[in-house]
Amino acid sequence: MKPEWQVWAKEAKEEFPRANSALMPLLHRIQLEEGWLSDATIADVAQLMGLPVQYVESVVSFYSLFHQEPVGKKVVHVCVGLSCALAGSDELMHQLEQQLGVKEGQTTADGAYTLLEAECLAACDKAPVAQVNLRYVGPVAPEDAARLLSEEVSS
Amino acid sequence: MNTKHYLLRNRDVSHIDQIDVYEANEGYAALRQALKDYQPDELVAMVKKSGLRGRGGAGFPTGMKWGFLPNDGRSRYLVVNSDEAEPGTFKDRELIEENPHQLVEGIIISSYATRASEAYIYCRGEFRRGAEQLRRAVQEAYDHGYLGKNILGTEFSLDLKVYRGAGAYICGEESALLESLEGKRGNPRLKPPFPAVAGLYGGPTVVNNVETICNLPPLVTYGPEWYTSMGTEKSPGLKIMSVSGRVRRPGNYEIPLATPLRTLIEEYAGGLLPGRTVKAVIPGGSSVPLLMPDQLDTPLDYESVMKAGSMLGSGGCIVLDDQVCIVGATARLVKFYREESCGKCTPCREGTYWMTDVLERIEHGMGQNSDLDLLSDVADNIAGKCFCPLGDASLGVLVSALKHFRHEFEAHVAGHECPMGARLYDTVNH
Ligand SMILES: Cc1cc2nc3c(=O)[nH]c(=O)nc-3n(C[C@H](O)[C@H](O)[C@H](O)COP(=O)(O)O)c2cc1C
Ligand code: SF4
Ligand code: FES
């Protein structure tokens, strides 16, 4: 457990004092620093929140943006929703898989990228759209896959 | 075509997301007026008179919803649903990213009207910039005396907090949203009791959509007569339609309700690509039945779209042209529900899985004739048998696609391939 986590837990509980409302804000904040939520992290959070480990684990596993595996420096979400599919999202995904040498759901060996599919990102006007570390990039035509990967994103 | 914007004023005024620009353009004037000229109940009456209906999908009258709060002295909550994730819908994202103060002002007015002392914005986890914009706007509103204790020197006090989801469409359903806001898995709750009676932390709660609440500042400024001067008697006012798919200018368009679908597609969204024709339109987000080319003159108001056999829903309008494979499009939409089923009840969890599997099989030319009946069978086992509306939502497009385009499904089976050569990557055996 990192010392600042106790401060963060206190702040989250001050902002959201009721029920377990401080839990997700705390998980978000820790994941932003750590990149993902390991079993050890989940146990630490459970302790900080005074909740059973199984409870925190069950919440974490429900939400797709909480990562229970290490992820790359850049997490690339490619929207494969219908409007994006109509604009070539599947081809974009194939291009990215080829260029990164991984399949959807995997992280490159050098830890630089994780490639994930997303459901409609509520940006269908930018189809096909992607997010890099939850920052929108789009439209990204399949032939612009390389540009997407090299895009500078603020963390 | 409408040129002046009300809800999408960010299109006319640059940097309106900055508080000084917002204030310089009459920002927070509606709040001042509401606090000065109206008692809370008068505001509720005004909203009832305007006929404003919820923009989250169901179109429930907002004033009536506010009127359901019991008068039992318990403190009340206003929760704003910014979990927008219904495929084809992207209006709330623009509203929060580009004009967050409009929402904040709407929340303060709505909280005053409903006598809520705490308000929450439940912001979709993927909306990273949206959440940043909202947090900044909320902080600025505190700094300027629009939030906190004794707002603008009145007796009214309000705290507003921004809470981030973490990736789960089901949390857009109001009871699942409240579970998530309480730090739990986002499984829907049994209703009744409805949130008005037992909502957040068990207290009386109003849950409203972002766009619904964004209507409040202009409503106070221009009055209910302005609102009822647009649209129809049962669907007055303005609606933001998100248009995507095969049109030249995908985007959000603010229209007076009852604007014909054809006008939205051809004038606002710039029409189709050269040489293409409309095959079908999903008018109100991924959960609603298809409208066919002979229905393009349908006025976009709640009752007309319903009469045409579909729903205005969230206003997510996806246009499919003659180059779109209906089997592939349906497969992709049903897959969405498979991914987002919360897993609480079997018909939804298993049914969406099987339907996706069968649809992808047909799309890839590996379907059999019996698969069409199998699809109808599974759909029958979902319809009306699920714990929350997500199960039924997965059927809207599928059932109407099977009805109008059965021949296309059959052609896939008979020819052992997609006649349009559509390529869809297989999501089932991933
Ligand atoms: C599966 C499902 C997803 C939903 N998603 C949203 C959503 O993203 N945003 C929203 O405002 N309402 C959504 N709703 C509707 C809400 O449950 C609720 O009716 C709405 O927020 C009420 O606000 P309104 O009266 O202002 O429309 C969803 C409903 C269901 C069943
Ligand atoms: S219908 Fe689907 S989403 Fe709704 S409770 Fe059942 S499993 Fe969950
Ligand atoms: S379908 Fe990709 S953003 Fe909506």
TrEMBL record, chain A:
<dbReference type="GO" id="GO:0003954">
    <property type="term" value="F:NADH dehydrogenase activity"/>
</dbReference>
<keyword id="KW-0411">Iron-sulfur</keyword>
<dbReference type="InterPro" id="IPR041921">
    <property type="entry name" value="NuoE_N"/>
</dbReference>
<keyword id="KW-0479">Metal-binding</keyword>
<feature type="binding site">
    <location>
        <position position="79"/>
    </location>
    <ligand>
        <name>[2Fe-2S] cluster</name>
    </ligand>
</feature>
<feature type="binding site">
    <location>
        <position position="84"/>
    </location>
    <ligand>
        <name>[2Fe-2S] cluster</name>
    </ligand>
</feature>
<dbReference type="Pfam" id="PF01257">
    <property type="entry name" value="2Fe-2S_thioredx"/>
</dbReference>
<dbReference type="InterPro" id="IPR042128">
    <property type="entry name" value="NuoE_dom"/>
</dbReference>
<dbReference type="GO" id="GO:0051537">
    <property type="term" value="F:2 iron, 2 sulfur cluster binding"/>
</dbReference>
<dbReference type="InterPro" id="IPR036249">
    <property type="entry name" value="Thioredoxin-like_sf"/>
</dbReference>
<feature type="binding site">
    <location>
        <position position="124"/>
    </location>
    <ligand>
        <name>[2Fe-2S] cluster</name>
    </ligand>
</feature>
<dbReference type="GO" id="GO:0046872">
    <property type="term" value="F:metal ion binding"/>
</dbReference>
<protein>
    <submittedName>
        <fullName>NADH-quinone oxidoreductase subunit NuoE</fullName>
    </submittedName>
</protein>
<keyword id="KW-0408">Iron</keyword>
<comment type="similarity">
    <text>Belongs to the complex I 24 kDa subunit family.</text>
</comment>
<keyword id="KW-0001">2Fe-2S</keyword>
<dbReference type="InterPro" id="IPR002023">
    <property type="entry name" value="NuoE-like"/>
</dbReference>
<feature type="binding site">
    <location>
        <position position="120"/>
    </location>
    <ligand>
        <name>[2Fe-2S] cluster</name>
    </ligand>
</feature>
Automatic annotation (TrEMBL), chain B:
<feature type="domain" description="NADH-ubiquinone oxidoreductase 51kDa subunit iron-sulphur binding">
    <location>
        <begin position="327"/>
        <end position="372"/>
    </location>
</feature>
<dbReference type="InterPro" id="IPR037225">
    <property type="entry name" value="Nuo51_FMN-bd_sf"/>
</dbReference>
<dbReference type="Pfam" id="PF01512">
    <property type="entry name" value="Complex1_51K"/>
</dbReference>
<dbReference type="Pfam" id="PF10589">
    <property type="entry name" value="NADH_4Fe-4S"/>
</dbReference>
<comment type="similarity">
    <text>Belongs to the complex I 51 kDa subunit family.</text>
</comment>
<dbReference type="GO" id="GO:0048038">
    <property type="term" value="F:quinone binding"/>
</dbReference>
<keyword id="KW-0479">Metal-binding</keyword>
<keyword id="KW-0874">Quinone</keyword>
<keyword id="KW-1278">Translocase</keyword>
<dbReference type="InterPro" id="IPR037207">
    <property type="entry name" value="Nuop51_4Fe4S-bd_sf"/>
</dbReference>
<dbReference type="InterPro" id="IPR011537">
    <property type="entry name" value="NADH-UbQ_OxRdtase_suF"/>
</dbReference>
<keyword id="KW-0408">Iron</keyword>
<protein>
    <recommendedName>
        <fullName>NADH-quinone oxidoreductase subunit F</fullName>
        <ecNumber>7.1.1.-</ecNumber>
    </recommendedName>
</protein>
<dbReference type="InterPro" id="IPR019554">
    <property type="entry name" value="Soluble_ligand-bd"/>
</dbReference>
<dbReference type="Pfam" id="PF10531">
    <property type="entry name" value="SLBB"/>
</dbReference>
<keyword id="KW-0285">Flavoprotein</keyword>
<keyword id="KW-0560">Oxidoreductase</keyword>
<dbReference type="GO" id="GO:0008137">
    <property type="term" value="F:NADH dehydrogenase (ubiquinone) activity"/>
</dbReference>
<dbReference type="GO" id="GO:0016491">
    <property type="term" value="F:oxidoreductase activity"/>
</dbReference>
<dbReference type="GO" id="GO:0046872">
    <property type="term" value="F:metal ion binding"/>
</dbReference>
<dbReference type="GO" id="GO:0051287">
    <property type="term" value="F:NAD binding"/>
</dbReference>
<dbReference type="InterPro" id="IPR019575">
    <property type="entry name" value="Nuop51_4Fe4S-bd"/>
</dbReference>
